[in-house]
Write a structure and sequence with these properties.
single chain, about 375 residues, alpha/beta, Rossmann fold, 2 domains, 11 strands, about 40% helix
């Protein structure tokens, strides 16, 4: 497939997987807008690609949240002439982010990416990477066609992502597509993940607790926990962005058969070699448990995750089922990759413990 894709968000894991998926098609090119502070990491990613793919990706020093994506006038004009598809994946989903950063990355960057879309001479699709949690505090079934139905955003991420989706929907003349993944976890093949947050709180709680103790579930555990691996999100997003039927639609990228919080915790416990959980504790006490000393080195926002654990919501994915019918792109169930999640986290936790131990040996006052 001959196409030129402009990508924002590199070097996040999602953007890397999107770039790899695009480049898997012979003749496809990626032009990635990268902030100067991340150029070294982005170059390392490019250098690790197969030689043939390396020649079809270029890094452009810029900033998605700046005017004209932080590019020169000549660079911006050249992109507008060349681009076929825009994957706007620059976003912040970390629940501990400050409001100023969330506003810049989630809202202002969307406006700037849309300016490129409007200037493009032959754009086929503008793929906006959003989140299923624009649903905020909604309960029950959420349809892909729904956006603002009076829900209350529970944090600054949900608030700014909701606003950015409204901006995309209001952009007339732009062939827009919105993809809304649920909680994105690591690569189902390797376990790699950008940040140990969200559901990784449960996993690290198990791995850092004595093996002989059967921990209780930190909520009643009846709500569904919506997890989806990053490699599936990338594959599905690229395929959807190439399908002209997707223009003007929104797509929930979710596990079609999600486990409950309790079911997920039990699966984590089994994979981690821990005793299965017994009973549960109320969510307000669960917040205290998720602040167990040691976990704070990895995660900073247990409150936002607890709110997800107690919100009984389900996401319709009818549009995804229709558009991906006949392909081999399907969301894998958690049970098929939980061992890789556990292995990756165990390695990260072990490395952090070794680092801390080395620091204490070097400086016993630390």
């Amino acid at each position: 497939m001959s196409e030129t894709v402009v990508l924002t968000g590199l070097p996040t894991l999602l953007a890397r997987r999107i770039a790899e998926e695009v480049l898997a098609a012979p003749g496809a090119r990626v032009l990635a807008v990268v902030r100067p502070k991340f150029e070294e990491a982005a170059r390392a990613f490019v250098e690790a690609l197969p030689r043939e793919a390396r020649g079809r990706i270029a890094l452009l020093s810029g900033d998605a949240a700046s005017m004209d994506l932080g590019l020169s006038g000549a660079e911006f004009s050249r992109l507008a002439q060349d681009v076929d598809v825009i994957h706007h994946a620059a976003q912040v989903t970390y629940q501990g982010v400050d409001e100023k950063t969330a506003e810049a990355v989630n809202v202002r960057a969307t406006r700037e990416a849309l300016e490129l879309a409007r200037a493009a001479s032959h754009l086929r699709a503008f793929v906006h990477h959003s989140t299923a949690y624009v649903s905020g505090d909604r309960r029950g079934l959420v349809l892909e066609s729904e956006l603002d139905v009076g829900q209350r955003p529970r944090n600054v991420v949900e608030s700014t992502k909701l606003r950015s989706e409204k901006i995309v929907r209001a952009a007339t003349g732009v062939p827009s597509i919105v993809v809304r993944p649920a909680t994105v976890v690591g690569d189902s093949r390797t376990g790699e993940v950008d940040r140990l947050d969200g559901p990784y709180l449960l996993l690290m709680l198990l791995l850092t607790s004595p093996a002989e103790i059967a921990l209780p579930v930190p909520t009643e555990g009846d709500a569904l926990l919506h997890l989806v691996p990053v490699d599936y999100v990338a594959r599905a997003s690229v395929a959807i962005g190439r399908d002209p039927r997707a223009i003007g639609q929104t797509f929930h990228l979710v596990d079609p058969a999600p486990l409950t919080v309790r079911g997920t915790f039990e699966l984590f416990a089994k994979a981690a070699g821990r005793r299965l959980p017994r009973g549960f504790i109320p969510a307000n006490l669960g917040r205290a448990i998720l602040r167990t000393p040691g976990l704070d080195r990895f995660v900073k926002s247990p409150r936002a995750f607890l709110e997800q654990l107690v919100t009984p919501v389900q996401y319709s994915a009818r549009n995804v089922e229709t558009i991906l019918a006949g392909t081999d792109i399907q969301a894998p169930g958690l049970e098929s990759y939980v061992d890789r999640m556990v292995g990756y986290v165990r390695e990260r936790v072990g490395a952090e413990k070794r680092r801390k131990s080395e620091v204490e040996i070097e400086d016993p006052l630390v």
